[in-house]
Q: What sequence folds into this?
């Protein structure tokens, strides 16, 4: 969270990823390259099966590339670490036997080696940031899906990672809650200016959340294009310019022929 704007944090260089199913080894991504800079809201966008979630897991250190390199602050990623924290879409990522406050404070004590008082203070700070300070002593089963995701985001931000990784975190929410959570995320970013790497298959969500978008082709994922925020309108999701941006990205994602190496 201490990254200065414009400083390169993540460097993904020619990364190819594979996984094994029952029949064979499947290539998930092929020679994907991009950089993420301090305070970026960087979105990996592509259809289901293009390898974007697999790529996120590799950046988190859960999967090793078969080719290429992933570096954070100039150092090759060799495994998971508190400098990269992941928020998944599942609502059950919070241990049910711990209160909301304990869910946030416990990893701070373990990974960041904070005292009990320090961990509690930081946990309360980020609970307040997501508007859930009044639910500190509640248990996860009493919360709605959106509230659980806000707790998961607070827990991730409290770790103060170099990069916050989010893997389709709002996909399981209803449309209204999803839109509200997107707005909440942007509000949090305005206050904290953390570096975000966000995975989605929704073009609209990518346009709302991101200031940079990397388009990945259908399986296996290859870079189709990289777009910067000046290429679309943030005025309104009902705005003609916004709809034109959606149509343009849809064309780039699904056009036939050779991959596009475009930067807008």
A:
């Amino acid at each position: 969270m201490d990254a200065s704007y414009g400083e390169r944090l993540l460097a993904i260089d020619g990364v190819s990823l594979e996984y094994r199913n029952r029949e064979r080894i499947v290539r998930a991504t092929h020679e994907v390259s991009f950089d993420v800079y301090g305070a970026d809201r960087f979105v990996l966008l592509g259809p289901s099966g293009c390898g974007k979630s697999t790529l996120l897991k590799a950046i988190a250190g859960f999967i090793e590339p078969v080719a290429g390199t992933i570096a954070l602050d100039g150092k090759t990623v060799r495994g998971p670490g508190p400098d990269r924290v992941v928020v998944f879409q599942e609502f059950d990522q919070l241990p049910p036997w711990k209160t909301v406050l304990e869910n946030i404070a416990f990893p701070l004590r373990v990974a960041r080696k904070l005292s009990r008082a320090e961990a509690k203070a930081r946990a309360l700070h980020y609970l307040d940031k997501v508007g859930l300070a009044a639910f500190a002593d509640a248990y996860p089963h009493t919360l709605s899906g959106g509230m659980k995701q806000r707790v998961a985001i607070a827990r991730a931000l409290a770790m103060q990672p170099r990069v916050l990784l989010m893997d389709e975190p709002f996909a399981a929410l209803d449309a209204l809650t999803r839109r509200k959570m997107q707005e909440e995320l942007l509000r949090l970013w305005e206050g904290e200016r953390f570096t975000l790497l966000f995975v989605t298959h929704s073009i609209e969500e990518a346009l709302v959340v991101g200031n940079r978008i990397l388009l990945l082709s259908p399986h296996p994922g290859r870079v189709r294009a990289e777009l910067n925020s000046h290429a679309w309108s943030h005025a309104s999701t009902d705005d003609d310019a916004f709809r034109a941006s959606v149509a343009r990205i849809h064309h780039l994602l699904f056009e036939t022929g050779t991959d596009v190496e475009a930067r807008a």
User: Anything to note?
Assistant: The longest strand covers residues 8-20. DSSP finds seven helices and eleven strands in the chain. The chain has two domains: 8-83+163-263, 93-160.
